[in-house]
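Hi there,

I know you've been waiting on this one. I reran it after we fixed the sequence typo, so this is the corrected version. Both the input and the resulting structure follow.
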Amino acid sequence: MKDQLEAIQKEALEKVTQAANLKELQDIRVSYLGKKGSITKVLKGMGKLSSEERPIIGQMANAVRDAITTSIEEKATSLEQAALEKRLEEESIDVTLPGRPVNIGGPHLLTSIVEEIEDLFIGMGYEVKEGPEVETDYFNFEALNLPKNHPARDMQDSFYITNELLLRTHTSPVQARTMQEYEGNQPVKMICPGKVYRRDTDDATHSHQFTQIEGLYVDKNVRMSDLKGTLDKFAKKMFGEERKIRLRPSFFPFTEPSVEMDISCKVCHGEGCSVCKGTGWIEILGGGMVHPKVLSMAGYDPKVYSGFAFGMGPERIAMLKYGVSDIRGFYTNDVRFLKQYHKA
């Protein structure tokens, strides 16, 4: 039995030395030190030994067990260290490599245009107001001198939700709401940017959803010359100091008189070209003096108060200012288009 234990120790230590991984080492542990292992089988035969031999064999079996255990633990430590070193080598980072570029986003072109216009008018003392995009028929039309069955309603083909609710066709309802809020006894000086909706066929210059910025100034002794001066300053700020403006008679139900404003063509400087269709002028916005009926419905006495209003489309302004040929570029989220106007 002594020879048997010595043979087990020698064999076990050789296998431990040859073990290539922790799984093989665990198999060796079970094979020699487990409940059904080789040493246990030897110890089961100690009953046949004499009383003098039993303590000697028992002591030898413990020594063999300890030697195999120690050898397995040392081998396990060695294998774990080797595995760690291999992992560190595989996962090493070369700090000298250049970093990966980070793509930084920026404001959308329309957002930049709207903010630029807001900053301009805030500098002139205007407030920025907002209102609901789902609007009542009253504020969208009737409060703006467009009663039911008025033929001018056909100019704004609308998305109705119910008979009295619709997606707003312009931001003018915000003006009507603000005037009513002020109860006709204080001046109003505001702009209202936001999305508007009209039934339209989407193409290079039209969209069923677009952006508007409308302005309103109501006070005592407000004149058409004030409107012209305001729009002239706007045009020069947005398109350059060399821009000239002209006002043409037009019609809007909520202003009287009404005008369309043109700016001189920046391509031909008023000489006439394909961009301005040979006229030297490009239409940019509409406006006029607030209709007395609109003032009255909002609670203002038209004999005391007067005012002007104007409305513009930031998409059109952006298209003219930056040479954008297709309005759909603002809404299709093509990064190649958007990054052209990203100011780092």
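Quick highlight: The CA atoms of residues 15 and 28 lie 7 Å apart.

Best,
R. S.
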